[in-house]
Amino acid sequence: MTADNQDREGGAVSRLWGAVVDGVAAVGTLMIGVLMVIICADIVARNAMGASLPLVSEAGALLVVTLVALQLGATIRARRLARAEFLLLALQARSPRAAALLRAAFNALGAVILGIIAFATLRVFEKDWNAAEFIGVPGIATLPTWPFRLLVLAGFTIAAIEFAFATLSALRRAVRGQA
């Protein structure tokens, strides 16, 4: 169990939030399976019929962005986000409080950046919803884009909130003088 998770342990709201974050990540995992099926079906179609299936590249692009957004919150919550820890580890050995403050700054910056991305995604979602935006070729195959935009918005919002929680946790550890 990580230090962030130890700080959050205990409350029903925290457990419910964790279930939401994990559930959203599970939807992202299901999307990986859907993407694999779509790609395999396209390969079979290309070999059997000499033609690609409609919407494969467009749907694939939307699915990749969506599944990454949906899984980002759980990655942050589990402290599995890739980062160079060499500076933090050296700082932690000398000054646990300074290391915790640096972690808090990193997490706060992540919350702000992902909040900005979520806000920008809200505008894209509103545009796609109001204009009934779609991908594909009318008369052959089309797919509305707004459900994907909504999931991306949810994913980045959850990730921003997770970074905010991690910021608070790191600040609590800094006050206690822990890394």
Features:
single chain; 179 residues; mainly alpha; two-stranded antiparallel ribbon; 6 helices; 79% helix; elongated; DctQ; membrane
How many helices does DSSP assign?
A: 6
Question: Order of strands side by side in the largest beta sheet?
Answer: 1-2
Q: Could you state the oligomeric state of the chains shown? A: single chain
Distance separating the two termini: 15 Å
Describe this structure in words.
By secondary structure, the protein is mainly alpha-helical. It has one domain (10-176). It is 79% helix and 4% strand. It contains six helices and two strands. The chain has a two-stranded antiparallel ribbon. A hairpin with a 3-residue loop joins strand 1 and strand 2 (141-144). The longest helix is centred in the N-terminal third of the chain and has 38 residues, at 12-49. The model has no long low-confidence stretch (mean pLDDT 93). Part of the tripartite ATP-independent periplasmic (TRAP) transport system. GO terms for molecular function: transmembrane transporter activity. Pfam families: DctQ. The complex comprises the extracytoplasmic solute receptor protein and the two transmembrane proteins.
